[in-house]
Amino acid sequence: EIIAWEAEEIEAISSLFQARVPQKPGKKLSRERPLPLPLPHKIRPLGLPTSKNLVRTHLSRSQRQPISNQIYKNPAFLIRLAREIRSLSPDDDVSKVLTRWAPFLRKGSLSITVRELGHMGLSQRALHVFCWVQDHPHLYPDDRILASTVQVLSAARELKMSFDLNRLIALASRSVYEALVKGSIDGGNLGLAYRILSAATEGKRTLDCGVYAKLILELGKIPDKAELVLPLLEELAKRDDFELTQQDCTGIMKVCIRMGRFDIVEALYDWFRNSGTAPPSVVMYTTLIHSRYTEEKHREAMAVVWEMEASDCLLDLPAYRVLIKLFVALNDLPRTVRYFAKMKENGFRPTFDIYRNVIGIYRDTGRLAKCRQICREAEMAGFK
């Protein structure tokens, strides 16, 4: 039987060899290709956490470390040793606690334990720990535990030995030397601390600036010792590596105000601001304003007030006390009223001197009704 092909079928078969499929009349050829499906690795959110394999590797690595590496500088463990030593009976030796841990300790480890015993008031136990360490060659000699022991004993005034300062300067390391000064200051033996620092100066020994600051702050609290502060300040001023924390700098500024050395106050403030370590705090601003107020430089003090306002630092109660006192001295009633209201809005209770200053400026400006109102408010607050 002969199969007859129609013309349309022949054209369709021929088009297969030409890579083209003919469309029926009236049907449009779609030239748009569908978008590919998104691949899973390309649609994950960014910032995926570390894979479990990496975490497991890190944990296993830390668990594989020797136990000595995990405890010999762990503060929690070393403080716990001090507590265990504290719980010993007076007849028990510290070796009862320390011997079992001896293989896992390193040089300097027990310096934290010694300092903690000092905080507990157990200076003799701290000395016992030091003596125990001396019997273990892998723990001693070590300046860190020696410095800690010296500081604890000198703070408790139990460092009973006569020593030659010149020999001490020649033999002691810087850390031990500074520990002796700090311990003497903590123990209230300021005369000894001053002698040691003076000997260090004569022996061309350089100590940390913070040690000088610590002694200056303590001497500044005693009126009879104020004359000892200036030589220490002069020694600090000669240092090329002069460096103070903001807290120490502010504290020394307060000492200088009590001594009437306002020039040193200004120099310290300028040094700190130019150092760029941190912006001045509200305490430092308040100290400088108080210094200029005490020196009766009220207009210059206002310049610091504007600088403090521009820095947007939050005021505390001492700052409000100094500012209101300054505004009253300038007879600036609007500022006094504004800061008095702002102080109460911020939750601070006015002190007696604040009430007295506000009442005084209302009285001096003829605002007698307002004066009586503030008087009643002060009486309700318990002031008479």
TrEMBL record:
Signal peptide boundaries: none
Coiled-coil regions, chain positions: none
Entries under InterPro entries matching the protein: PPR_rpt, TPR-like_helical_dom_sf
UniProt key word Cytoplasm: no
PPR repeat residues: 316-350
Keywords: Repeat
PROSITE patterns according to UniProt: PPR (PS51375)
Classification via PANTHER family: PENTATRICOPEPTIDE REPEAT PROTEIN (AFU_ORTHOLOGUE AFUA_8G04250), YALI0C12947P
Protein name: Pentacotripeptide-repeat region of PRORP domain-containing protein
